[in-house]
Amino acid sequence: MQKVDFSTLFKHLAASTFFLGILFLSSCGSTDDPIPDGPLPALELFDSSYGQDARQVMDIFLPAGRTLENTPVMIYIHGGAWIDGSKDEFLQFKTAFEQALPDFAFVAINYRLFDFITNANRFPTQENDVIAAIQHVLENRVNWNISDELYLAGASAGGHLALLHAYKHQEVGNIQAVLALFPPTDLTTLYDFNFLTQSGLTALLNGNPQSNPDAYFQSSPVNFINPNSPPTAFFHGTVDTVVPISQSDLLASKLEEAGVPYEYQIIEGQGHGFTPATYATIISQISAFIDTLN
Description:
The protein has ten helices and eight strands. By secondary structure, it is of the alpha/beta class. GO terms for molecular function: hydrolase activity.
């Protein structure tokens, strides 16, 4: 028969009793309530993943005092011709947006970029990443204490992606409005603008408008505008040599035809990118536009 070491047994029992007591006291202590005792403080979360790829990350900027009912979210999508750029683009506008829209939370997203060398991440990869990012925000809105009211914003290729999602995927997210700076809106007509747009779009969409017309149709925001599309504000310079202002002229015409509320500002003498003073004015106009919707 094996001899029982009672001294060792008692030591284990005593230790177990001690730790159980600690767990009991910590679970019952009234001073350890995890619910905050006042308004939530501001919080910034960087490189939060919304997918498996290294590019599928976002930065989240949550305001102080946020609530599930009263904190709408603006999701910003960067530009870069679908081949370059990052979510850091938002940082140049962050302070101005936070001052103009103090009750908003802001999310800046990366998305997978097209690779000219390998042809990896052709469209609609970027379109699908916007969908995944929005779903990730909605899945975490209780944790972050934010509303389900979403506003999409972006510049250049980011403006294109914001418009495309707002018009084409209305079932994904409660999109209140969409805001775009010098956006491509119809890739079929953009194709012939110059050699760069021809070569870039041919690679991105795996063909030209004649050889792959469905890809151009499916990737063009103006093709999905309908009377229920969200209100839209957009801004374009008259001397833009990257995305011609005719792209925004066409957008305005389609929105007018469908009866969708919109604001179109033509920026005289400026190109693909505005001066700091112009950006400040635009952000103020965006805030006023949003106010008219509420």
